Amino acid sequence: MQPSSTLALVEMAAKLRREGHEVISLAVGEPDFTTPSTVIEAAYEAMKGGKTHYTPPRGIPELREKIAEKYRKENGVKISAENVIVTPAKMGIFIAVVSFVEPGDEVLIPDPGWVSYPEMVHFAGGKPVGYSLDENLGFRVNIEDLQEKVSGKTKVIIINSPSNPTGGVFTWDDLKAIRDLVLDHNLLLISDEIYEKIIYEGEHISPGIFEELLPHTIIVNGFSKSHAMTGWRIGYMIASQEHLSQMVKVQQHTISCAPSMAQYGALRALEDKDSVQKMVEEFRGRRDFVYSKLAEIPGLSVQKPRATFYMFPRYQFQISSKELAERLLREKYVAVTPGSAFGNNGEGHFRISFATSMENLKAGLERLTDFLAHL
Ligand code: GLU
Q: Is the pTM of this model over 0.70?
């Protein structure tokens, strides 16, 4: 396994700060907001009431029920609490991968795509195979390329819409084509829906809406991005009971259960739609600002993301994205993530996370503009 580039940058920026430098981090994808106070209160009350013990490995029944209700009502996915395991979202993807990927299996992953997919596949002894997200299609999946990448060894397809690091959103047609591919080749689909709520244009469609696909699908979602709860480590998986009965064993033998107090916080979070809306509106303002600034920089071409808090500009300078990110950090104390961290198709890009204050964004973009002008 390779170390996580996104988290490595967090460490590097923290080290420079400790040395006294004024570092602006546009690297990590984590909302700068504090978790809504209603959620904090709910967790606090739960703890004071003695909810500080193990919970059932699959999670507390009332939360599993509420998650199922959310997916039925908001996403049109016909499931019950029996289809839900509460677990941190990253852990959920890991559990799904290690439960079903055998050594030698191929797993199709988005390229560019989140840094941890290939490493989780490596951990299971599988082979990650990238499929293209096409910049000319607003970073939607290139279906022909995806079809071509399916081989006799393909076991799993991972999709992530809305997508990290590009902010692309898959359409109905994309999802129908993916459904057909999964059913034709009897594959397993892992759908990472963590950015579901951070969406500005278009709509989030869960592939679980296709009933015939449900027995082949594992949905992963969570509260980190939608409710600014990254430190709580709380999310969930939705899958067939057959798949869940396998995956729960990994949960039992690793983390036992998700943190009990975080589960009570999450229960409250599912009722708090206003806070999510407010944060998304704030992100939208930042997105428009960052886009307008990046669009003015010579040598960059940038798409306005339809979702997420990431922008993934392409540059024309003769420098690798790794070197660009390292020099930008060393010379201007601005952290961005090199595009190559997200796969071969990410080279020639860098990722900016605008999940930080307007003040940081203004100062960071000024320094970036200055840096690029001297490249
Ligand atoms: N997913 C976020 C990112 O891409 C958080 C860090 C991580 O889990 O990689 O920055």
A: yes
